[in-house]
Amino acid sequence: MSISRVGFGAWAIGGAGWRYAWGAQDDADSIATIHRAVEAGVNWIDTAAVYGLGHSEEVVAKALATLPEADRPYVFTKAGLVWDENDRLAAPVRTMAQVRREVEDSLRRLNVERIDLYQVHYPDTGRSLDWAAKDDDQGVATPLEEYWQTMADLRAEGKVRAIGLSNHGLAQLEAAEAIAHVDAIQPQFSALKRAAADDLAWAAAHGTGAIVYQPLHSGLLTGAFSRERVAALPDDDWRKTFPEFTTDLDRNLALLEVLRPIAEAHGTTVAAVAIAWTYAWPGVSGAIVGARRPEQVAGWIDAATLELTGEDVAAIGRAILQTGVGEGPARP
Description:
By secondary structure, the chain is an alpha/beta fold. The chain contains ten helices and ten strands.
């Protein structure tokens, strides 16, 4: 698949009423936003079964249904986070034990005959995704060798076109590659979160695509955030209590002061610079960027064509070191 440099991220359009929601969202706005992104040249959508507990996939299906077939983007989704239908606010469980049921559910919700890229959302631990979960809460995990073979079988059966791993480390990527080729990886990667640099290098060396998520770090690198903006977030927005938006906010925002003059020099936005920075790293095939309203697409679409200079990348690297944000190498 030849993909655009930016893809549409569909986490936030899952709406409210689940553990990791971004607050209430109007489906009509979501559909119009997807259409605007496609009109601007975006040719892939990344969603997941867990986003909105199935609702994001259903909204994506509605957006696809009202597009001419020739204009329909590729659809990527994920398995491995299973929720409790009786407690929508409980943290989902990380399990690949039900992947065959999950793929059928996603095919139905998306109303497609084949999923273009099917990904394992997280390594299977058999326990809750809740980051506060204790080690003694450990459940029974499906071994990687077992669930990756199932993913390869789904590819061979034609239910999915390509298979990938999200949030898996180097040792897990190597183990999976020994069983069946890893078509793509999806790590979190931004100027504030760089721990996956080695994973990107692995992808480049193995002929594996790499689509990075949260290049804007959930909105922090758009240039629009402040302490007042965080305080005004609705109470059901997961970001309101997350460390990056609370205890680490000041130094995270300090990095923006270096991105602003670079954006001005290129006649673009801070968001476009932050996204384009990820392309400076060997192995990156594309970046997933979310939007909740059509007008937000204009804030980052320039990243599809923006080329940062070596000095731009070096200046951002110096600022990363000076502010002490995140972890991982400061520059390629």
